[in-house]
Amino acid sequence: LNLDLELQKPTNCEFLKYILLVKQGDCPAPEKASGFAAACVESCEVDNECSGVKKCCSNGCGHTCQVPKTLYKGEEHS
Fold it and tell me: Cα–Cα distance between 37 and 12 in angstroms, integer?
């Protein structure tokens, strides 16, 4: 498999853009937001505008950076 050729395909470029913009994990339910996370503001548009593991999530009134409810932690090896 030639990765250079594969990366030149538009579908793969779109995928790379997607994984750079969208962080892992699921947004919490809007009703779980509290404090600034529940403010009626548009403080972000995409995940990579948020620091650390936070994602840009809807709070039912706007979008704020919130800690995801689930994160993939990888496999444990013993």
Answer: 33
- What pLDDT score was predicted for residue 13? 75
- Report the pLDDT value the prediction gives residue 1, as an integer from 0 to 100: 47
The structure tokens listed for 28 are 């919490």
Distances (CA, A) of 45 to 3, 13, 31: 31, 20, 19
- Per-residue pLDDT tens over the stretch 26-41: 999 988 778 877 878 8
In the predicted structure, residue 4 carries a pLDDT above the cut 70: no
How many C-beta atoms surround the C-beta of residue 66 within 10 A?
23
- Determine the length of the chain: 78
Looking up tokens 């779980």, which residue turns up? Answer: 32
Nearest to 42 by CA among 65, 21, 24, 23: 65
Could you tell me if 30 and 58 are in contact, meaning their C-beta atoms sit under 8 angstroms apart?
yes
